[in-house]
């Protein structure tokens, strides 16, 4: 099985190879997989094209599924087959331990550039002493809100999830009474996929309910704080959140919010540039803050996200592919991506760069949110993480749909994860 065989099944599309000046490809040709959330694909293509123009090589940009769950399944098929069609893989922060054996050690190719990046992410990407991926951009969940609507109705940005719930309902009901019957209070990623794991982990950690599995590998998810968090989320559906949110991923939530039909939204930093673009209906009326606390005793928390670049050990040109990674993860390119697309740098110095802060002011205000984000339990669960996450998002989805109470769902989840743990993560 090779890459081209998988294209039809995965709806994966290849773009035109990029070479210097658009001329006939020169030098070595390599390929890179890129996501397509918002401006992501275009910004990746621009960076790759700049590298090609500098080096005289050519690069093919491959668009992969936006769903991280679908993308991982595709990558696993390609790498298990030893396919050489993709040289540089864009991988999620939780995948180094799952896919690392298929990637080269980048440490010897970076000329020490890795030392500029957040040490925690570099450590995350180091498996058995090998730097299997370079940090490209980091993420944490954020709360977006309509600043004009909150001001109109006399509300401040909420500090707790209960306050968000109450404010969303009050503004929604007031606006609907004035004829804005399309407005909802809150949209988020409620589909049964990895995005719901991120959302549900934020709710639980904000209530001091832990991170599902603790760093020692013990299952901790069934506790009163976690139950309270999921129970509250279950009340949103059909009240402040539409039934359709149960099928929303990132772009569906953004579509509702950016069209002016939601008061609040949970999403990643990339949305900032799009929501404030000149053609956005809500441009200039968007605020962003840390996600709310679970209560006065809770904490602001966002799930650690972000993407890395790794070079396949099946690449025919690993040194050239590593040079592309070095360029794309550099200070200059991360600065460009931050200014153009609000992609969070993994280099601390960029959070003090005046041009970056002018383009994305909240990078400075929410710096602590990004560096102290809660990690999904991918390290303690290792190669079992996918199954752990799937069990967690299904349990959370059952609460949202009303198929189970929070107590039932988390008790069942605890039993299932404990059986998995006894067999060895």
Automatic annotation (TrEMBL):
Claim: Repeat is one of the keywords in the record: no
InterPro entries hit by this protein: Bact_solute-bd_prot1, SBP
Keyword Transport: yes
One Pfam short name: SBP_bac_1
Subcellular location: Periplasm
Keywords, sorted A to Z: Periplasm, Signal, Transport
Signal peptide start and end residues: 1-25
UniProt main location, coarse: periplasm
Any one GO cellular component localisation term in the record: periplasmic space
Family in the record: Belongs to the bacterial solute-binding protein 1 family.
Identification of the protein by name: Sugar ABC transporter substrate-binding protein
Species this protein is from: Salinarimonas ramus
